[in-house]
Amino acid sequence: MSTGFSSSSCRFADYFVICGLDTESGLEPDELSALCQYIQATKFRDVARGKLASADEGENFEQSPLRRTFKSKVLAHYPDNVEWNPFDQDAVGMLCMPKGLSFRTQADTREPQFHSFIITREDGSRTYGFALTFFEEVTSKQICSAMQTLYHMHNAEQYDILHTPPTPRSQEDARPAAQQLHAAPSLSRLQRFNSYDISRDTLYVSKCICLITPMAFANACRRVLEQLHQAVTSPQPPPLPLESYVYNVLYEVPLPPVGRSLKFSGVYGPVVCQRPSTAELPLFDFPLQEVFELLGVENVLQLFTCALLEIQILLYSQHYQRLMTVAESITALMFPFQWQHVYVPILPASLLHFLDAPVPYLMGLHSNGQDDRTKLELPQEANLCFVDIDNHFIELPEDLPQFPNKLEFIQEISEVLLAFGISSEANPQCSEGQSKLRGFRSGDMASDKRNGNLAGSPLNSYLLRENQTIARLQALVKRTGVSLEKLDVKEDTSTNKDSKVQCDEEEFKMHQLNIRVREVFANRFTQMFSDYEVFVIQPSQDKESWFSNRDQMQNFDKASFLSDQPEPYLPFLSRFLETQMFASFIDSKILCHDDEDKEHTLRVFDSRVDKIRMLNVRTPTLRTSMYQKCTNIDEAEKAIEIRLCKIDHTALHPHLLDMKIGQGRYEPGFFPRLQSDVLSTGPTSNKWAKRSAPAQWRRKDRQKQHAEHLYLDNDQREKYIQEARNLGTTLRQPKLSNLSPSVIAQTNWKFVEGLLKECRNKTKRMLVEKMGREAVELGHGEVSITGVEENTLIASLCDLLERIWSHGLQVKQGKSALWSHLLHYQESKEKRDATPAGLGPPGIIHDTERRKSDAGCAMPPLKVSLIQDMRHIQNISEIKTDVGKARAWVRLSMEKKLLSRHLKQLLSDHELTKKLYKRYAFLRCDDEKEQFLYHLLSFNAVDYFCFTNVFTTIMIPYHVVIIPSKKLGGSMFTANPWVCVSGELAETGVLQVPKNTLEITFECQNLGKLTTVQMGHDNSGLYAKWLVECVMVRNGITGHTYKFPCGRWLGKGVDDGSLERILVGELVTNTENEDRMCRTPPMQQSPGMMRRFVTISPNSKPKLNTGQIQEGVGEAINGIVKHFHKPEKERGSLTLLLCGEYGLVWALEQVFQHGFKSPRLFKNVFIWDFLEKAQVYFESAEQSQMTQDENWQMRVRHFCHFMRAINSTPRNIGKDGKFQMLVCLGARDHLLHHWIALLAECPITAQMYEDMALLKDHSLVNSLIRVLQTLQEFNITLEASLVKGIGI
């Protein structure tokens, strides 16, 4: 980010550097670039079968010599060294001229090109470089004749190639040299087209002058360099020797103080720079306008989202400055967050192997302008954001969440741009080369009044494109009241002001636009995180131990924060809170207790957040998704304008130096080597130089400036940064010239270690997330959490797997490395399986043999088959892409608890792994691979529903088995049974079950987690009585098996006379030796209790005492209360809490059965009988107009109404089923506590209950009523199957 400084330097520039052709060493091919071109050439050769391979491709001879790269050298740098910023010759040489030297003749264009670059050191601090590359005539005869010789060789070579008939070079492999020769060419034409003739042509070579500075004042540096270049090329010599100007910039121009502006003299005119104060956004001096013109608002916002989610980003352009401008802009717009990973805006050709890095990165790759995107062989694309800057387009990874309030945000940015006459679309005129762009911008755009009239069109075109949201946007436009006349006025006011500003108009416009756009972006975060401090978890221990346990600590209460957010924000925010940049931001917050040690960024952000809090005095934590526009643009703009109108400091003017006579002369047109003796040291006394300050002060100062970059004091920052970026070390200080295999191996080893560590942390985080919640729930409610947070963690696990699978790939196929490996495996396995005959189609599972009726409860588990799971995914038509398929497969394997096992099987095919991966790849490091699989194995400890909950619309086969009781043979049973299966997402409708096999398999849309089964029969035939043990249902894809216990009769005149029952089920875990429930056991198990809805006869089982019954009711209500306190997406099944084991229905059953007078032998009395008698009593009491209060009559009316409705239902659900329905409806309508009060007072109770019954104990009844009243605040929605046939 542009906040970083690298030094305790208080000088504007640390070094002045000259790079170019070293005539002594002559023409050396640039091996590094050549090697990379060679590697690419061989890659294309392998991939594009049968193309001609010329042995000389290593020297890329198909490139004409003028297009080849040669080694550039750092010819000179002044001064030799600066203690606080040691000179890194390799890095500077490589980044000044990343492609090496280039040659031109008088026929080519030779415009000077400006670009900037960044050098990141081991400790994460940054130094900026600003380079101007121009062409100078080659005067050395040796070089010219060497070039001539190369041409002769090249032309002969090309002539041979073009006359080799059998293997014509395909179009894509030929270079521009040969591209235009379609007819059989003659050598003379070839030479004419592409040649250098020493007698006729002038040869030019590139040279570069460069400033290395601690802070990024891009415009000022550009000005200084352009004026120095102009001094050499203009016919008149400059007023003073060049040394005077360079000396002035190096030693006499200070950095502008914080919040001040500074003016100093270039060769021909003043140069102005200004630095923001501590209350403003950090320094940023690159033109945001260019980024929006190149990419368009929509794309910039998508790229911004990718950067915030730490997705790998690769920028691609043939202009180095564009790479740098886009990279710096995106990272600057992230304020207050900072990019924590590999950051190389210009990746030198020799470091291409870093694209293999399986870590988040933001890199810029130079294109030669001829290769199209398809030629680019990128190691991994599953999670890559590829930005083709010159062609204004961007490739995004799949399922990228939307930035919150995206449309309103785009609208607000577009308004800012329109005020400057900039379209919100990408502007194709930008690609015509930057010189035109500059003329176009300052000429037509900035000062031209026509823009006021044009300003409407870009917005309209944006609206047309986003047609589905036109209405919303138009409403917004009206609401925000943007009118084009206003925009016109804006132009006017700014042009009037400009007269006072001390820098040129274009630069002032750039500052204005930059600050407006940056304020709009910064405002999004201040709104989104306005109450973030509330959720920061302060560590209980001291800093030292906090540091050592950093990995295990949670520093932010994510769940609570997310539960406050509007639903549409969640997909983005839940992923953003998992990033390194967010963690670092919160860490810095924890480390800075008072404002004094707060790092600049944090201080600015916190002061803004405080301001918003003051405004939102209403409830500070109440979230609203109302879009709040940015309000502090004007003051920010004012601050800059004041600085630029009244310059605070002026540096010394350049002056004659103490040079010997004859020094300082040079030939016009050539940039000379300067006199190093006068430039080697600065002036001895200098009031701002601070060189006299004692060393420890200097060090402190340096730490402070570092902190402005990475906000921790040095020792801690060292520790932490090494941790956070342990993967970037080689990149932050690339030994740029060294490309030995050992270095590459070491780099890759670092990556392997890093991947393993990341895997360890991710699995741990995911387990803590789930286990923590399960443990808290102690067996009540639902075991597994679903919802956004889990989804985020699983998505990031998928991303980690993709990165592991694409590390060290031999040849790239498809966008998902994991899926590509699986397909290879599937293919080889099917080949092997196809050989033996008579095995039936491979992978189909033969466990459908008829089951005997006494087959016992368990269904045989599904066969474990990696290929079968792949087929399931391949059959899902909704998933179209490889990346999507890989993710779905990972989710399915997680849900089946087979991820580790499947991957182990996949990697056990060593031949295949060897074929697909290089030796250094993660998947070929045996120890690490073992540990990695071991970490994944730990997921088997918890239940995930990450497949079922995500793919809600797919078709799934289900298998249902009804298991009748063994004791009373159901073999005589004559009626026709049916079932209806319901889940959280849908229900099946009635399915007839064949009575001889009692099992069916059917396919239907995903039902979600299963909750209830309704089952019954049609009461036909002689013997229509049926005792059912349980019903088992299995999901044919995920293998989840649910058990729905029954243990009751279905039939007229037996048990409670019911022909159908509603059963509530739970997931069964398949452990080898037992069939146990996967829920944590209930906290208090009532003694000897069988799993039954109600007992067959009340006296057949030990009675519970009143204490146990109260406890049971309390537990049941408690479960429901907890259910509603969870975030909506993480709630389990409410049906289970109402009707399941120890649910509310069961608990109230115990209440009503306590002290129920035992009936005569052989006659069961059901609670429903008691309730019906009570109903008769109430109805007669109402008729006889007994004087009771209004309330009583109201309750009675309700009770009787519900009883009548349930009794008149066409369903044959039996007495206990009716009781269950009454309790559910009473809970839904918040009437249970009224009914208990009624029944306790009812004379029927006195007749049917013994004196010690719970219902006759006033204090117990009152406490029961109080407990039931707690349900009043919840909105209970019943599953359809529970209230079918009741119209209340």
From TrEMBL:
Which CDD domains is this protein grouped with? PLAT_RAB6IP1, RUN1_DENND5A
Which residue stretches, if any, does this entry annotate as coiled coil? none
* RUN domain sequence ranges: 788-952, 1135-1283
Q: Which GO terms describe its biological process?
A: retrograde transport, endosome to Golgi
Entry keywords, A to Z:
Guanine-nucleotide releasing factor, Membrane, Phosphoprotein, Repeat
Q: Which GO terms describe its cellular component?
A: cytosol; membrane; trans-Golgi network
Q: Indicate what this protein is called per its UniProt record.
A: DENN domain-containing protein 5A
What family is it from? Belongs to the RAB6IP1 family.
Any idea where the UDENN domain is?
54-599
Q: Which residues form the PLAT domain?
A: 956-1064
Subcellular location(s): the record lists: Membrane
- GO terms of molecular function: guanyl-nucleotide exchange factor activity; small GTPase binding
- Quote the Pfam families the UniProt record gives: dDENN, DENN, PLAT, RUN, uDENN
SMART domains, alphabetized:
dDENN, DENN, RUN, uDENN
